[in-house]
Amino acid sequence: MSIVTIHFGFDRAAAGLAGEGRRLADASNSELHAIAINGGAADLARVADRVSSIDVDYQPEACLAALAELCHGATTILFANDTYSQELAPRLAHRLGGSCVGDGVGVELRDGAMRVTRQVYGGKAQAVIALKRTPGVAWLRARSFVPAPLRDTPCEIATITTPAFATKTRIIERKREAQTEARLEDARVIVSGGRGIGGPEGFHAELEPLAELLGAQMAASRAACDAGWAPPTWQVGQTGKKVAPELYLAIAITGASQHMAGISEAKNIAAINIDPDAPIFRHARFGIVEDYRKVVPLLREKLKKMQ
Ligand SMILES: Cc1cc2nc3c(=O)[nH]c(=O)nc-3n(C[C@H](O)[C@H](O)[C@H](O)COP(=O)(O)OP(=O)(O)OC[C@H]3O[C@@H](n4cnc5c(N)ncnc54)[C@H](O)[C@@H]3O)c2cc1C
Q1: Global pTM?
Q2: 292 C-alpha vs ligand 1 centroid, how far in Å?
Q3: Are 135 and 194 in the same domain?
Q4: 234 lines ligand 1 (CB under 6 A)
Q5: CB 3.0 to 4.6 Å from 248: which of 85, 266, 270, 272, for a disulfide?
Q6: Do 151 and 218 sit in the same domain of this protein?
Q7: Full residue range of the structural domain in which residue 256 is found
Q8: Domain count, the chain
Q9: If you take atom 27 of ligand 1, which residue's CA is the nearest one?
Q10: Is residue 87 part of a domain?
Q11: Which residue owns the Cα nearest ligand 1 atom 14?
């Protein structure tokens, strides 16, 4: 058995993925081979038994060719849930004659075969998918897995040079998206607003100063984003971002199943809502039944005094 984890850099998702790879390798007495694409090799060398480092001008075909060679003979191949991984995982599985499943929240190896747990029906139920062919390839909601402790002594890093790859794709220009703030998916604390906020001024005047005091990032429900009160990049949920913060503060959000699908990995949910029967309270660890316009200023005052 051999387990391969594939990483694009070393962020919280990569650390969670390496942690899960380490756990599976230890449980099955197997080797963990981490492949670092464009950075992260030094950190991965303190978790894995073997690291291959590839620097590549990203192009799916070239990357796929290199990965197919490096993963030859592997039984289990794990990716995180970034766009590169979601693009490559099914193609790699096909190339190697294996099976693939996406959006996993848990992985087990039973008699050498891979079983991946996924959330279905907007997080209301879980499905366990048994992969019939080898290798089993999965992309996971990696941020919610526990990172492995970093060893003092790193393993060796093999640097792989990708040969020029004949491809029909011609890249005309590359544009890098301006990164104005940290990724919502990596946030430890999130302040999120819903339709009950009532308009954009509630986000700016009430929620954003609260987020600043908490060192939190802002998010919103789809209803608030669709209304144009919050940018679409803030949307959390089934058709938005999947987040896994330590604290998710849901303000004037009802807690529809499609919203909850994006926060099922949150460690703690706290909610402020005027409706005591709002579904969000069924998931929240802490809740305040009150108008947010009364509660949020009090919270800000309290936080200011604590600073
Ligand atoms: C296919 C599909 C995909 C979807 N994907 C997503 C998704 O990714 N993300 C998502 O969020 N939704 C998604 N939705 C929409 C989802 O079903 C809900 O409609 C949406 O989440 C509701 O947003 P909301 O809770 O902000 O608004 P509402 O349901 O209108 O709830 C507003 C809440 O605010 C409370 N409130 C009102 N005034 C105050 C006040 N002054 N103080 C405190 N509380 C107050 C109310 O009691 C209420 O609970 C999707 C729907 C479909 C069909």
Answers
A1: 0.68
A2: 15
A3: no
A4: no
A5: 266
A6: no
A7: 184-306
A8: 2
A9: 195
A10: yes
A11: 258
Question: Which sign, positive or negative, has the C-alpha torsion 247, 253, 254, 258?
Answer: negative
Sequence-ordered list of residues with C-beta below 8 angstroms from that of 5, at least 6 positions apart, any chain: 17, 18, 20, 21, 32, 33, 34, 35, 44, 48, 77, 78, 79
Ligand 1 centroid – CA 258 distance (Å) = 9
Is 259 near ligand 1, meaning CB less than 6 Å away? yes
- Domain holding 202: CATH number? 3.40.50.1220
Sequence-distant (6+) residues with CB within 8 A of 7 are 14, 17, 18, 34, 35, 36, 37, 40, 44, 80
134/212 same-domain check? no
Q: Are residues 8 and 141 in the same domain?
A: yes
Q: State the average pLDDT over residues 55-71.
A: 87
Residue 255 Cα to ligand 1 midpoint, Å, equals 6
Residue 36 has pLDDT above 80, yes or no: yes
If asked whether residues 265 and 197 sit together in one domain, one would say yes
Q: Whose CA is nearest to atom 4 of ligand 1?
A: 258
Pocket test for ligand 1, best of 197, 238, 272 (most atoms within 8 A of CB): 238
